[in-house]
Amino acid sequence: MTTRPELDRPAEEARYGGRLMFAQSWEDPACDISWLKLGPGSRLFAITSGADNVLDFLLEDPAEIVAADINPLQTHLAELKVAAIRVLPHASFLNLLGIRSDEDPARVYHRGVRGELSDAARAYWDGQNEAFSQGLLTQGGFERYFAILRGALRVVVGRRKMEELFTLEANQQRDFFARRWNTFAWRSFLRIGCSKWFLGNRLDPSWFAHSDGPASYGDHFAGLARHAISEIPARTNYFLAQIFLGRYVAEEFTPRYLHPAHFETLRGRVDRIRFETGDILDVFARLPSRSLDTFALSNVFEYSPASLFERTKDELARVATAGARITLRNLLAPRRLAEDDRFEVDAEEGDRLRRADRGFIYSHFEAARYAGP
User: Which of 48, 194, 276, 373 could covalently link to 221 via disulfide, CB atoms 3.0 to 4.6 Å apart?
Assistant: First the structure.
């Protein structure tokens, strides 16, 4: 792995403090799939995060997925999920993740999955019995932040209204939000709960070190929340259910990789994934030129200085095949491929996919192609 000054790449320990940050993935994979056109023969680069989307992409039958994350604990989580898919029955897999409660998840881990892990992953998960017992999918830093918000929302909005949202038809949601949800207390809550100070304190300050940011983070996220509650069908939105309820509404409204109909397909394909730990520039530097034709980049560049983004684009251009398709999200720090002539961006399609994204927390979505040097 190449090395660079601390200014360019904060140490993993300094950035995350030894914490698992994402137990789930928080980008809607349907939006990436819509643009990337994955299929047999596709060779994909993706950000590991909670590994949900990497597994969802696998259902499109790509030939290879290279998944990377700078946080080694995200790689350990991905390894756990993949090992569980290899060796567990579907019902036990759901119990391991905390979606069902028919079996003790820690016992499922120790009895069925532990022996399939690398030494590093096993050493980490051996000490996580409490995380298993509390529901693994709720135990990342991001999910714990949502749990704090959810507890306050039960007072500000009311538990009954939060449950009712997921019973509505899509055409009822806008009126429900305007008349019963969008109160002064709700708006005041977002100004505090989604403030830069609170976000940095509960998540990681480095996430906002390179963000110019809106004048008010609370107002910014209030607009995104209004769109999600009013415009995106809530009943099937498993992202919104996890935020407001801390669980899925029903097993049919979960990420595709969790559905029983896809389980054996995943079991037969998980060996196509290669997980890498390191920052994106390092991982790209290890890949052959013109080796990948699709890239799901999440909002990975927001956490780095603009100078590192520029250098990573050079490596992206080296690794990508001509015409390679790319998705890139922005949350608060603008990192845009559209400003580089080597990439062609379909702004209209990107805006459509941003508005359709059930994950809804992102403010910008780029649907891009690598046009060439």
Answer: 194
Decide if 30 contacts 59 (C-beta within 8 A): no
* Residues whose CB falls within 8 Å of the CB of residue 112, separated by 6 or more in sequence, listed in order: 84, 87, 88, 92
Q: Rounded distance, CA 98 to CA 101, Å?
A: 7
- pTM of the full predicted structure? 0.90
Q: Of the candidates 186, 175, 173, which has an alpha carbon nearest to the alpha carbon of residue 228?
A: 173
Helix residue spans in 194-333 (DSSP H): 196-202, 217-231, 238-244, 263-269, 280-285, 306-319
Paired residues of 69 in beta bridges: 277
Secondary structure class of 72 (helix, strand, coil): helix
| Mean pLDDT value across residues 132-142 | 95
Statement: residue 213 has pLDDT above 90: no
Reported as a pLDDT band with limits 50, 70 and 90, residue 266 is very high
CA 138-140-142 angle, 5° bins: 95
Transcribe 277-309 into DSSP letters.
ES-HHHHHHTSPTT-EEEEE-TTGGGGS-HHHH
